[in-house]
């Protein structure tokens, strides 16, 4: 298994060792560069670099454009090597291994099966291949003495017209790995209302939905995700901060007023799947600045929104969940209690049965208590 680099809080706690929950993590955005290089020749893919480190650097450079549209172009390369059952199975297996190496004990892997049919697979065969890889990865983790649980978020591309078909696919696999549905891709100009039939179907089937919204488009997109999509979570949702107005400030504090939409999201405790590094890369937070300290993550957290921390695309951002938590801690001075809050928020937002979510929360609390006890013992 590949190992994530270690990051520590100021009190010496190793962030990598803490139990974590990953809710917003794209399969085609989390390939190992070495695997891409190995699979590219058979797939007929020409790469910009044939060294894993150089290819990793290329992905990050290409993704740091300030444009979601340009950011999404890097996926042409990754999806090109994900068109056979064997490749999907391997990539999913390695994906699970990498999550476990980063301390993740529950993860939801989102991906769009409709983008993986060029090699002749059917939608169902693609889902089955990914599920096989996930199960192999879980077995690998358990054989090494670890624990992880994984669910698939079956995703439809919002600029296409297959959302109902993909929704039916997701429900068809609800007892064999699929835990939720999403729409992704270019956000502006492709509102959730385009796929109302799919969302109606999912609601009737009592199947959970998260929707990419509030990343490359604003408040109308977020509202559409909630009204038309009946989203239980917001994929990113960072631009919800546009509905928060600073009414006055003094030397020590700022006082804000929430608009109707942001107040609704807060009061309903609708989770925000925030991805700090990715949000900077795609320009989702450019209204507030271009450094992590400008990200409205802390504003949303301090105001009591249900914030969660995510990677979005590990390859494109050169990141891990551990690294994202470390960056936030450095930017905003978060301590172990804050990091625990983010993981509990994510555990409670997981698309799992209530009893399983409660067990996941307990596992998070126990792991963080062990870490806190280790700090106390070391003093």
Automatic annotation (TrEMBL):
Residues 19-365 form the Adenosine deaminase domain. Keywords: Hydrolase, Metal-binding, Nucleotide metabolism, Zinc. GO terms for biological process: adenosine catabolic process; hypoxanthine salvage; inosine biosynthetic process; nucleotide metabolic process. Its cofactor is Zn(2+). It holds the Pfam family A_deaminase. One of its GO terms (molecular function) is metal ion binding. It comes from the Bacteria. GO terms for cellular component: cytosol. Its EC number is 3.5.4.4. InterPro entries: A_deaminase_dom (IPR001365), Ado/ade_deaminase (IPR006330), Metal_Hydrolase (IPR032466). Belongs to the metallo-dependent hydrolases superfamily. Adenosine and AMP deaminases family. This is adenosine deaminase. The lineage of its organism: Bacteria, Bacillati, Actinomycetota, Actinomycetes, Micrococcales.
